[in-house]
Amino acid sequence: LDGDDDEYEYEGVELDDDDVADEGEEDLDQALRTLKLKRGMAVDEPPSAPEKPEIQERPEVVDDFIRNFLRKVGMHKTLDSFQREWYALKEDGKLNEEDVGAVPDVYLRNQYLRDEVKVMKEKVEKMEQIANKARATWDKFRKERDFHKMHHKRVVQEKNKVIADLKRIKNHYADFEPALAAMRKKYEAAMKEKMMMKLERDRLKAKVTALETQVMQLESIRPATDEASVAQRPRPRPTGASLPKQPRPNPFFAFSDEPRAVETYALQATAQAHDVGVAAVAHHPTKQIVATASDDCTWRMWTVPGGELVMSGEGHADWLSSVEFHPHGSHLATGSGDCAVKVWDFRTASCSATFSDHTQAVWDIAWHDLGDFLVSASMDHTA
């Protein structure tokens, strides 16, 4: 046949055919009743309360069972082949009554149980999927709970630590309150003294200005003869060492120092010499030692390049402006803003001489090459 490969959708065969038989029986009874009425015969009246018909379950025959099974599993081509062979054998009379009988109930029951088991398995798989999802969600929530619990404990520990630190700082601050009060009183007293000193300074400044004006007026009326007599007055000669005889050869004439390229210099060491700025630096004539003078009113000697402290000195009342080694390396001279020049002896580790002839700060000092003379330059325009 041409229609062997068509995709025809077969429907299940209904098992109850009682309705068709009942309808045939009802038509026959109605016809007999109509004939009796036409012939004038007595017609049996129908019962007042018709009995409820009983529904009998007819067993499923073999061919219907096979058709339903093939249709359920989707084997449509096999179903077409079965239909052709089944009806061909039926027309030829090759099918016995035993072969086409009803299917035993045990097979139907087994088929029903298999279908129910299949449905239950599907439900069980779905339930397992739901249970797995619930288990994963529970594990996630448990991990988050543990994490938040640990984080909460850590926050509580940090809170307790901060509280302890705050208490300790409060106690520490309470100990400093008396000292702060005393320092505040000292500061107020110092500010009062400072204001008094400023007032005294202004008063003395005004007095000095008046005295300078008076001196200028006196100098303007002094006779010229006095100036001439002062100019001709012999100056006192300093006692001690005598000046070198002239002419004298230059001791530094044979000394030569060829310049070096800046690129060859490199930083070897750095030392924290003073707490404030360094004003002057001098190198020892024979040893690897340098001396530094600072605004902190001190001078210090250091090894080079180790940076170890050798000696230090304090004695000036104001900042230091200059420092210079003796040509023989046995003494050190310093100039300061307190108008003084000091000479320090290394053998006795003390100040051997102090010169206070200047009226203003000393800016620079220098030794004579023989070491017998020391020159100083000051802001009072004298040397």
UniProtKB/TrEMBL annotation:
Chain residue ranges for the region called Disordered: 1-25, 222-250
Top-level taxon of the source organism: Eukaryota
Listed PANTHER family: SPERM-ASSOCIATED ANTIGEN 16 PROTEIN, WD40 REPEAT PF20
UniProt protein name: Guanine nucleotide-binding protein subunit beta-like protein
Gene3D superfamilies found in the cross-reference section: YVTN repeat-like/Quinoprotein amine dehydrogenase (2.130.10.10)
SMART domains: WD40
WD repeats: 271-312, 313-354, 355-383
Alphabetical list of InterPro entries matching this protein: WD-F-box_domain-protein, WD40/YVTN_repeat-like_dom_sf, WD40_repeat_CS, WD40_repeat_dom_sf, WD40_rpt
Coiled coil, from the record: 110-137, 180-221
Key words, A-Z: Coiled coil, Repeat, WD repeat
